[in-house]
């Protein structure tokens, strides 16, 4: 009789064991959370100190790139080294025009035979024609000449663009508009992998035993006399460093140029005041666009799809966005979120406590994510009980075949 009164072994006993297992799991989880909390201080997301906050995304760097262009570039104006086609008509009958091709000198003058040199720098071709005709009359060469000027070929700088651009290689950039933005435009623009750092490598500053000033192609050869050699080097040294730099930098004039001629630009943090000449490019300069470093975060805990996710390059990602990337919370009662953040200069990771419910109403609680953040929706007594009841109901319904609701 006693044996007959004992409940039969079966599904109900399995349910009881599952409930007991869940209860012990919750207990151990609570103990582990308590011990972990004793190891390091916690911060609330809404009152997080500024030194622990993530930096906003740089956004669209093309807005900042527009600031790197020179002001008022006009490629229709005549500049040094431009090739001009000049036709001089003296006004005599049956005279056949013979076009003359001449190059504009470094100082902006063009030598027109038989008139002589005439300054035409930064002039429109039509205005240059009038100036040459006026010079011919004033110098007594012609009485009423008819002169036309056309730009046959604009002077260009040969710029090498490398890195994260669509068309890397050597590009010809008009000398009047030879800047970083023009070079990048000719290279097809930035790729999706491009970062915000651009490096300009100047090739015209220093070379072994030679010194080339900007676009001047005439290179001083090292003299044989040691005394004269020292004077030439000193002249180049003074041109480069009028302020008198440290003695160690003087070696750049007699050794191959390396880091001394590199200029790094961060498009995400351009200064408010700077000289546009800093971003002007000379012949044979090199522009290197650094690839963007991929940044990621980890989302785990009570989420549908825990894993690693990449941070957007030009947009900010906040805590609720990160949880959404992981498929959202797997528990309806989940609210407590831990963000583990490694901050430079801190010996231990920073633990940040946040609430999903508060984050929906308070932007300060909806924490901005940083590279390497670990986001975890935590198990609490409420979520443990709710999830245990849910599993119990599911198992009970599965055994009986009936629903309680």
Written account of the structure:
The chain has 405 residues and is α+β, with helices and mostly antiparallel strands. It has 3 domains: 11-57 and 295-399, Outer membrane lipoprotein wza fold like (Roll); 83-153, wza like domain (wza like fold); 156-291, no CATH class. Helices cover 26% and strands 22% of the residues. The protein has 9 helices and 16 strands. The strands form 4 sheets. Strands 1-15-14-16-12-13 form a 6-stranded mixed sheet. A 5-stranded mixed sheet has the order 8-7-11-9-10, with helices on one face. A 3-stranded antiparallel sheet has the order 3-2-6. The two termini are 37 Å apart. Mean pLDDT is 76; it is low at 1-17 and 206-260.
Give a brief description:
This protein has 9 helices and 16 strands. It has helices at residues 2-5, 11-39, 62-65, 125-138, 180-186, 226-240, 319-325, 356-359, 381-400; strands at residues 42-44, 83-89, 100-103, 109-112, 116-119, 146-153, 156-163, 169-174, 194-201, 262-266, 286-291, 296-301, 307-310, 336-341, 350-355, 374-377.
């Amino acid at each position: 009789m006693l044996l007959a009164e004992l409940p039969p072994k079966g599904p109900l006993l399995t349910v009881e064991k599952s409930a007991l297992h869940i209860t012990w799991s919750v207990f151990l989880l609570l103990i582990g959370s308590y011990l972990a909390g004793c190891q390091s201080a916690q911060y609330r997301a809404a009152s997080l100190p500024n030194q622990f906050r993530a930096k906003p995304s740089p956004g669209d760097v093309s807005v900042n790139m527009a600031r790197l262009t020179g002001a008022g570039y006009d490629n229709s104006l005549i500049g040094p080294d431009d090739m001009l086609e000049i036709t001089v008509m003296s006004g005599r009958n049956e005279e056949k025009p013979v076009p003359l091709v001449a190059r504009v000198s470094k100082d902006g003058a063009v030598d027109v035979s038989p008139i002589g040199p005439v300054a035409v720098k930064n002039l429109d071709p039509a205005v240059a024609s009038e100036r040459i005709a006026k010079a011919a009359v004033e110098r007594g060469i012609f009485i009423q000449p008819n002169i036309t000027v056309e730009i046959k070929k604009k002077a260009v700088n040969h710029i090498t663009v490398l890195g994260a651009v669509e068309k890397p290689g050597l590009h010809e950039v008009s000398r009047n508009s030879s800047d970083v933005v023009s070079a990048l435009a000719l290279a097809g623009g930035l790729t999706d992998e491009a970062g915000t750092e651009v490096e300009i490598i100047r090739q015209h500053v220093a070379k072994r035993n030679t010194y080339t000033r900007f676009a001047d192609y005439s290179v001083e050869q090292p003299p044989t006399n040691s005394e004269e050699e020292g004077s030439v080097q000193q002249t180049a040294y003074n041109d480069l460093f009028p302020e008198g730099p440290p003695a160690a930098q003087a070696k750049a004039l007699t050794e191959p140029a390396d880091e001394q001629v590199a200029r790094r630009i961060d498009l995400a943090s351009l200064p408010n005041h700077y000289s546009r000449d800093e971003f002007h490019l000379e012949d044979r300069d090199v522009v290197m666009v650094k690839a963007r470093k991929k940044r990621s975060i980890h989302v785990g805990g009570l989420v549908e799809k825990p894993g690693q996710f990449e941070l957007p390059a030009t947009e900010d990602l906040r805590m609720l966005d990160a949880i959404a990337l992981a498929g959202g919370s797997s528990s309806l009662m989940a609210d407590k979120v831990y963000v583990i953040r490694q901050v430079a200069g801190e010996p231990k990771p920073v633990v940040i406590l946040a609430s999903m419910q508060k984050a929906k109403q308070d932007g300060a609680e909806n924490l901005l994510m940083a590279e390497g953040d670990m986001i975890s929706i935590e198990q609490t007594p409420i979520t443990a009980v709710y999830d245990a009841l849910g599993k119990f109901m599911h198992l009970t319904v599965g055994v009986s075949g009936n629903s309680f609701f």
